[in-house]
Amino acid sequence: VQIYAVTPIPDNRDVLQMDRVPDRIKSFYRVNNVRKFRYDRPFHKGPKDKENQFKSLWIERTTLTLTHSLPGISRWFEVERRELVEVSPLENAIQVVENKNQELRTLISQYQHKQMHGNINLLSMCLNGVIDAAANGGIARYQEAFFEKDYITKHPGDAEKITQLKELMQEQVHVLGVGLAVHEKFVHPEMRPLHKKLIDQFQMMRSSLYH
């Protein structure tokens, strides 16, 4: 028996993309009236690149469709359809950055609207996680994997997706800048050294991006 943690796929995505809809309502739609769920299995297709694993890191994505939506009158429902697709390394990179941007925007919005202004720790951890990973080569690895001339020459059909990834990375810089401004407004005096570290690492991250 294999047990997988699955991610709900909301049917009503329009609501989730509306800026004027409160986060609490979006949270409801993310996990209610859901029939589709998915789980991912990472794998390396072909020889694994020891220098940069992102170049060969594919995702095997399984999507499960139930006979009825959850939650419902029963605690479980039968799976009526199972779909399996392979997500390329570039497509995976796009989804990872896009999801992180959405997570950051949602969290920052909660602090901006004073829903969570009492405790800055969650924002500190989220900003630190993204900026620290980027400062230690996270985003640079994507650049090395997909923006180099060799990759672009070998994958002419990926031009649009490469542009999309670049735009998402630039968007992440903008979102992080907004997050740091909010963080500065609410950070406690004893946490100022962490804030300064985040600012310094953010500057390094921004200067390392391709323009």
TrEMBL record:
It comes from Grallaria varia. It comes from the Eukaryota. InterPro entries: DOCK, DOCK_C_lobe_C, DOCKER_dom, DOCKER_Lobe_B, DOCKER_Lobe_C. One of its GO terms (cellular component) is plasma membrane. One of its GO terms (biological process) is small GTPase-mediated signal transduction. Transmembrane segments: none annotated. GO terms for molecular function: guanyl-nucleotide exchange factor activity; small GTPase binding. Belongs to the DOCK family. It holds the Pfam family DHR-2_Lobe_C. Residues 1-211 form the DOCKER domain. This is DOCK3 protein.
